[in-house]
Specification:
Strand content: under 5%
Structural class: mainly alpha
Radius of gyration: 34 Å
Number of helices: 11
Helix content: over 70%
Length: 243
């Protein structure tokens, strides 16, 4: 019994100072190495190229919407003034040619009303407004449907990234299950971290696409309001007698 106590005493005298010294010593810095683009592409696999293609398509759509979703492309002020002057004179044929020469949403709405006026002649304001509202609703739907591609990209991109993550984790865990003798925690952690690359890439594609959609949605709503105001102005001119 005395020998056991003596051994425990020497163990405590050696273990406690060593534990205190190790607690006081600063931890050794862990060497970290960032992945290169080639390593990221290799780790992401085929799906990383799919996400890259989706990002290119999203960027192209943003540039296209910047050029197309403008007042000059939807309801030009000059076209509205020119049509108003022609309708005041009762020159419906000239107004029809003007709409055909400058195709846009406002021209399509005005053209539907002008052709209705040429075909029917004297008509009720309710029928004329119904014709213009029908064509205006169709043009508004076309404007809104264009920007729907951005939320589609924002929804699909994280799903593609999640698919890549699941596939990578299945690959990592299957390698561990097939060879338990050589399974190392560092190798498993490396495989899981590489699998998460596709999820990060999917979010990088999705977040800007959703932000761009929110911006262009508000822009499209303002343009549709401008189109409605311009169409109402032309409808009033169509009901007035030529001066």
């Amino acid at each position: 019994m005395k020998k056991i106590l003596f051994a425990l005493g020497w163990f405590a005298l050696g273990f406690v100072p060593a534990l205190t010294a190790s607690a006081q010593e600063p931890a050794a810095p862990v060497a970290t190495e960032s992945m290169s683009w080639a390593q990221i592409l290799e780790a992401g696999g085929v799906l990383i190229y799919v996400l890259a293609a989706m990002s290119v398509v999203g960027l192209a759509l943003v540039i296209y919407f910047i050029l197309v979703l403008r007042r000059e492309q939807i309801a030009p002020v000059k076209l509205q003034d020119e049509l108003r002057e022609q309708l005041r004179k009762g020159d419906y044929l000239a107004a029809e040619k003007t709409c055909q020469a400058r195709p846009c949403a406002l021209a399509a709405v005005a053209l539907a009303a002008i052709r209705h006026k040429l075909r029917v002649g004297a008509t009720e304001i309710s029928l004329l407004r119904e014709t213009m509202e029908g064509e205006g609703g169709r043009q508004a739907t076309l404007i809104q449907n264009q920007i729907q591609y951005l939320p589609d990209i924002a929804i699909i991109a994280p799903m593609v990234g999640l698919l890549g993550t699941v596939m990578g984790m299945l690959k990592a865990f299957s390698s561990v299950a097939n060879d338990m003798a050589r399974a190392r925690p560092m190798a498993l952690a490396e495989g899981v971290s590489q699998a998460l690359i596709t999820t990060v890439a999917g979010l990088i594609v999705a977040i800007p696409a959703m932000i761009a959609y929110a911006y262009f949605r508000g822009r499209a709503s303002r343009l549709i309001s401008d189109l409605e105001a311009a169409s109402a102005d032309l409808a009033a001119e169509l009901q007035e007698t030529p001066r």
